């Protein structure tokens, strides 16, 4: 599991934004939130328990093998029910990989925020979803 500090540079590379305070808090584990991946933060999946199941809200990896290893590492005790992931429309490689495995589209929404263009975005990337209500 990467230490929160090890996630800062890869997160900035993936998002195009360095937000140290937010990312440190975001990737710090709690009773309902976990970040999984190699200790160097080179690939990671952040998940949180939901009322039903769990939601992945940040995933980045450079290879399909990394994605599969990360998803297989998601512990069963984060919640019963579905495992959800918000795949951005500009991540066709991730969408194709997920639907070839065990995931299926449930709904689609419009992206409300377009981050800066990132030259070094990982090949497989899904950002965090902000559930506001």
Gist of the model:
The protein is an alpha+beta fold and 133 residues long.
Characteristic key phrases:
alpha+beta; 133 residues; 5-stranded mixed beta sheet
Describe this entry's structure for a reader.
- The protein is α+β, with helices and mostly antiparallel strands and 133 residues long.
- It is 26% helix and 18% strand.
- The protein has four helices and five strands.
- The chain has helices at residues 8-15, 20-27, 64-72, 92-100, and strands at 33-36, 44-49, 54-61, 83-85, 124-126.
- Strands 1, 2, 3, 4 and 5 form a five-stranded mixed β-sheet that branches.
- A hairpin with a 7-residue loop joins strand 1 (33-36) and strand 2.
- The longest helix has 9 residues, at 64-72.
- The radius of gyration is 14 Å and the shape is globular.
- The N and C termini lie far apart (31 Å).
User: Rg to the nearest angstrom?
Assistant: 14 Å
From N to C, what is the helix and strand string? HHEEEHEHE
**End-to-end distance, in Å?**
31 Å
Instruction: Please identify the structural class as seen in this structure.
Output: alpha+beta
Number of helices: 4
Shape: globular
Main beta sheet strand tally, sense and closure: 5 strands, mixed
Report helical residue fraction.
25-40%
Q: What would the average pLDDT be, to the nearest integer? A: 76
Ranges where pLDDT stays below 50 over 5 or more residues in a row are none
Binned strand content: 15-25%
What is the number of E strands? 5
